[in-house]
Write a structure and sequence with these properties.
homodimer, alpha+beta, four-stranded antiparallel β-sheet, about 20% strand, DNA-binding
Chain lengths: ~240, ~240
DNA sequence: CGTTTAATTGAAAGCAGTCAAACTATGTGG
DNA sequence: CCACATAGTTTGACTGCTTTCAATTAAACG
């Protein structure tokens, strides 16, 4: 069951990071009905203030959560990678409190709310996995808040790069020679509460001290341990593989 | 049932903000077993890295969630008021990813994990209320991230004051003549990613422009509408009363 | 009262922002 | 394949919000 070639493989893998799922539950997940869709970069998947209709899973590509101030400044409040759920909270809340947009061209599976609700009701294991998924995202948001509130630009940027690398690795998506960061420097700034200009300068600092190598948007850490130290990074908050269920 | 005098009244009120609870469910909540305890300001209720044993509810007083950087800087990532649950996530995760501390002297009810788990299993309504509670907190964290990442000190501080007033009001704890802010300026700084010195100066700015009046830690807004505008505040993210269930 | 904690104020320094321009990469149409 | 347009990156000079450091005043507490 685990070896079939399904677009949902990464979603299942993601849920299994954190909870034990029975073979039966895994089977039910693979059987989820849904509408497959390809989105261009920038497309909105969820809009703040609107009632949710379905629940989307990210099959490939990247997405982000975003909020705006009244004056138009943007804060990216979350980053989703392949296998991540995009709006599980829509299963329980009637109004979206933030926007979700495709960061790159992305493939998603739009699953009807009711289908997942039924699944969660029928299977305690899946219900548990959904909650753990939600809680993990909340934990990441708290770490981001610490990052933006209390770390300087260099540490802050390094921390985001470490988190991304760690999450990609957990999904089996990290390559040997580093990874392609799917964000513009402006988007990095919006995620970190900085300006794109300062992101550029801070990237140069990290590059200048030999912590990483860049080629376009491809990033490779020269020394993971050193990068961890620079970034003040510890992965407990990602809750990868620590839930016995 | 709603009029009895129980220490859990505020907890029930809080859950009812967001979801419809049957009389039966309310009865079950009031019947929750638990150990009543009084904590001094600063006491730890949850410690990062430790496995949770019980789930606490705040009956009176205030508490906060907190994380530290390696260099010792503190970020307050959440604020709890009477009626709030302090660690619902302990029901689903095996390791705490942040600390929870009493902000003031506080009364809490320590409920065994298993009791709530049984309750959630037995009552879909209560399970739903728990998830909505968790999701609301996550939404607040995202708004805080936007606040810290993209708003200047004046707006940022005003926003926190508005949120506090709104949440207190929803719990029936707001007085006519403003409210007593239960935080030192240092703690305000830690919640907003600022220094205590700058909090002090920013409070003076808000006071100087006549947006609020202070007497010690008591704060009164002179004009709620004006304060909302200054703070760029909108309460949708608090999800007060918008869940049909 | 004396002691401790919190609030307040001033002066100076610094990190990050703003503004503007140049440069590079990518993509499109002729 | 080139010319042009567009989006993103890079760099410099200058500004400014917030921090830092230090000292003073006020409030809370036994």
């Amino acid at each position: 069951m685990a070896d079939i070639d399904s677009p949902l493989n990464l979603v299942v893998r993601r849920l299994r990071h954190q909870t034990h799922l029975s073979e039966e539950d895994v089977g039910k997940l693979y059987a989820l009905p849904g509408e497959y869709r390809v989105l261009e970069a920038g497309s909105f998947i969820v809009r703040e203030g609107e009632p949710p209709r379905h629940c989307a899973f990210l099959l490939s590509g990247f997405a982000f959560r975003q909020k705006l101030t009244n004056s138009g400044a943007r804060q990216i409040v979350g980053l989703q990678i392949p296998g991540d759920a995009l709006d599980l909270q829509s299963l329980y809340l009637d109004v979206a409190d933030h926007n979700v947009q495709a960061l790159t061209r992305a493939e998603i599976l739009l699953v009807p709310r009711s289908a997942i609700q039924r699944l969660a009701e029928a299977s305690p294991g899946i219900a548990h996995a959904i909650i753990v998924n939600i809680l993990t995202e909340a934990s990441i948001t708290r770490e981001w808040l610490l990052n933006v509130g209390r770390r300087d630009a260099r540490t802050r940027l390094a921390h985001l790069l470490c988190e991304f690398a760690t999450r990609m690795d957990a999904q089996g998506l990290a390559g040997e020679g580093g990874y392609e960061l799917p964000m513009t420097q402006e988007q990095l700034g919006d995620a970190l509460g900085l300006t794109s200009v300062h992101i550029n300068r801070t990237l140069k600092v990290l590059e200048g001290e030999g912590a990483l190598v860049r080629q376009g948007r491809r990033i490779r850490f020269t020394d993971w341990k050193n990068m961890r130290r620079i970034a003040d990074f510890s992965d407990i908050y990602l809750h990868i593989g620590d839930q016995t269920g």
